Amino acid sequence: MHCPFCRHTDSRVVDSRTSDDGSCIRRRRQCPECNRRFTTLETASLSVIKRSGASEPFSRSKVVVGVRKACQGRPVSEDQLALLAQKVEETIRAQGNAEIDAHEIGMAILGPLRELDEVAYLRFASVYQAFDGLEDFESAITLLRAEREATGTEPDIASTPGT
Known about the structure:
The chain is an alpha+beta fold. The protein has helices spanning 60-70, 78-94, 102-116, 118-128, 134-151, and strands at residues 12-19, 24-30, 37-43, 47-49, 55-57, 99-101. Helix content is 44%, strand content 19%. Helix 1 packs across helix 2, helix 2 packs across helix 3 (102-116) and helix 3 (102-116) runs antiparallel to helix 4 (118-128).
């Protein structure tokens, strides 16, 4: 790491701390030449490969924007959307790949979104699982009902129709 003040080619790490919910390391460094201190932030890069073949950095905000559309008119807060985006990023980073297909990100969103709001889940799934007609919606709803009965949980009052 070059010193930003004197451009010396070496520096000594004085302190290291994690920041931004553990996805980033903040290092305090000192230059042995000029003795000035500076801070660096280190993150592992995660690239998204789009359908066109283009690559771009992963963005939590893009996850939030996509999920917000599915949650339109639903009782879902911005904090819940931010937490969902964080869960998705953690899931993707846990796979250990530096590059991930955009479609895989959409699929990684489905689990946390189903827990958050079943209606938003169905909206989102209809795009990412390429629903072709009513039969696809019916089978997804049947699956949701079967999972609910298996776990013995009732849906949130906010997500039941007619409330």
